[in-house]
Design goal:
eight-stranded mixed β-sheet; 11 helices; binds adenosine-5'-diphosphate; about 350 residues; single chain; about 30% helix; alpha/beta; Rossmann fold; globular; binds magnesium ion
């Protein structure tokens, strides 16, 4: 008798058996102010396996960066966090700040949209890289400098030894982002968090930086949380996608499914707002209205005021539930969407 193997679910193709590096479970974050607790994100859950890139997608103000900050343990004192964050199986959200920083410095690398804010303007690039390497890996000065040069070389920066003696303002935007990538991978992390890493770059440089990130992910078997508002990049670059709207996860699934067959009307709307390369004449249809600011979310479905499918049921908050290909937080998801 021939054994028939069940096909793998689409969401686990590349890294089905790889260990889970990051688990975010029912994460909530609010800011305490005079009026009480102002929720910023609610009930955010996703996982990232070794070697896998997971996109966090949504318009500006949806809570993507604050989700990343919570994972990194870099939130202001007046923030209140609920839920769980596990890194390589270890619960980190309850750790004392010092221990948390130590763990994160060693096991997580960060890449931000604007390297000028993340890199020090008056310290040489060599000093910044060697400080990180010495602090986290306990390397001596010379060994750290050798390793820094190797890393710059690895991320495609020519004349690494000269660059190490220079300052960040002397570099182009693309080269700065390469330095950020070198720093992010310098201590052998298991997770990289990249928050809109190419948004500030020219289109051709964007492609080069994305290629480099993809190469690093695959070569170093890194888990990657990739934050973007660009659905096209998600389809090309990420295994899975988590779509956020007004502090909520509204759709979650394999990126090919979410990008080509979105089930949440918001994900569909994001897709319709992407310029098509196949047909330059296609008119863009941006989603009408704007993301409600924190403190002004509707009680039911937060997308309902902008949604053509909304009805009375949407005055009640929907749960994230499995629907056809993905998990969707919607009372009226799109059926067999194409
Ligand atoms: N330190 C803060 N204090 C108060 N509100 C904040 C703070 N940081 C972010 N927010 C609010 O939280 C929401 C989500 O912000 P953010 O995570 O930066 O969104 P995104 O990265 O998706 O653009 C926004 O409405 C923003 O105004
Ligand atoms: Mg952001």
């Amino acid at each position: 008798m021939t054994a028939h193997l069940a096909p793998l679910p689409a969401e686990t193709t590349r890294t089905a058996l790889a260990p889970i590096v990051l688990e975010v479970e029912n994460l909530g974050l609010g800011f305490r102010n005079a009026d009480g607790l102002l929720p910023i994100i609610t009930d955010v859950s996703f996982t990232i396996r070794q070697g896998e890139a997971v996109a966090l997608v949504g318009e500006s103000g949806c809570g993507k960066s604050i989700t990343a900050s919570a994972v990194m343990g870099l939130v202001p004192d007046h923030a209140e966090i609920t839920g769980l964050i596990r890194l390589n199986g270890k619960e980190v959200s309850g750790l004392p700040p010092r221990e948390r920083r130590k763990l994160c410095g060693r096991h997580m690398g960060f890449i931000f949209q604007e390297p000028m804010t993340a890199l020090h303007p008056t310290l040489t690039i060599g000093r910044q890289m060697t400080d990180t390497l010495r602090h986290n890996l306990g390397l001596g000065r010379a060994a750290a400098m050798d390793r820094a040069a190797e890393l710059l070389d690895r991320v495609g920066i020519p004349r690494a030894r000269d660059i190490l003696k220079g300052y960040v303002h002397e570099l182009s935007g693309g080269m700065r982002q390469r330095v950020m990538i070198a720093l992010a991978i310098s201590c052998g992390p298991s997770l990289i968090i990249a928050d809109e890493p190419t948004t500030a770059l020219d289109v051709t440089i964007q492609a080069q930086v994305l290629d480099l990130l993809d190469e690093m992910r695959s070569e170093l078997d890194l888990a990657m949380l990739f934050i973007t508002h660009d659905l096209e990049v998600v389809g090309d670059f990420c295994d899975r996608a988590v779509v956020m709207y007004a502090g909520d996860v509204v759709e979650r699934g394999a990126s090919a499914d979410v990008v080509h067959h979105p089930a949440h009307p918001y994900a569909r709307g994001l897709l319709d707002a992407v310029p098509s390369h196949d047909d330059g004449r296609r008119r863009l249809s941006p989603i009408g209205g704007t993301v409600p600011p924190v403190g002004q979310w509707p009680d039911g479905c937060r997308f309902a005021p902008r949604c053509a499918r909304a009805d009375e049921q949407c005055l009640t908050r929907p749960a994230l539930a499995s629907h056809e290909r993905s998990d969707v937080r919607c009372w009226h998801p799109l059926e067999g969407a194409a």
